[in-house]
Amino acid sequence: MKQKLTFTSAFAILCLLQIAFAAPKPDFSGNWVMDKNRSFSNPPGLEQTLNIVQSGDQIKLESKMVTTRGGEQLINEAYSLDGKESDFTPPGAPPRTKGKRKANWLPDGRGILIEDQITSESPKGPVNQQISRKWTLSPDGTTLTVDYFIDNPGMSYEAKRVFVKK
Question: In order of start, what are the domains of the chain with their CATH numbers?
Answer without folding.
Answer: 27-165 (2.40.128.20)
